[in-house]
Design goal:
alpha/beta, Cytidine Deaminase, domain 2, five-stranded mixed beta sheet, 5 helices, 37% helix, 17% strand, globular, binds zinc ion
């Protein structure tokens, strides 16, 4: 019954990189384990600083469910969610969060704001980190490395 969706999240991250977006991907499964949404970052394409992979996946899943809450859903993300996404994950009542690489600079789960550990956080998902972390980190390194070499 349990089936990792990190492969699919990593392929969304690769697709984001190919579009010139920071390579982060996300997949949401419902309580029955079905994939209901998958997305990669689209902040540049949409000129929208909130268009992170997690937000896009949550929006799509909520629209499909006709609900602002996703109880029993599981979210797979290639990188530690930022504080904005962590707050959205909590608001959506997502049951389980699996993420890949840690993000000491922008992360908001194990770093920085530690949104789920805050007393104001009313719903804390189960959190599993470090899943395919090296693959996720390699995608980010090659993306930012290539951009540096491009003289941006
Ligand atoms: Zn985010």
């Amino acid at each position: 019954m349990f089936h990792s969706q990190m492969d699919a999240a990593l392929s969304e991250a690769s697709a984001a990189a190919a579009r010139g977006e920071v390579p982060v991907g996300a997949v949401l499964t419902d309580a029955a384990g079905r994939v209901v949404a998958r997305a990669g970052n689209r902040t540049r394409e949409l000129s929208d600083p909130t268009a992170h992979a997690e937000i896009l996946a949550i929006r799509a899943a909520c629209a499909a469910a006709g609900s602002e809450r996703l109880p029993g859903y599981r979210l797979w993300v290639t990188l530690e969610p930022c504080p904005m996404c962590a707050a959205a994950i909590s608001a959506a009542r997502i049951a389980v969060l699996y993420y890949g690489a840690p993000d000491p600079r922008m992360g908001g789960v194990a770093h920085g704001a530690r949104v789920f550990d805050h007393p104001q956080c009313h719903h804390r998902p189960e959190v599993y980190e470090g899943i395919r972390a090296e693959d996720s980190a390699a995608l980010l390194r090659s993306f930012f490395g290539a951009r540096r070499e491009g003289g941006r």
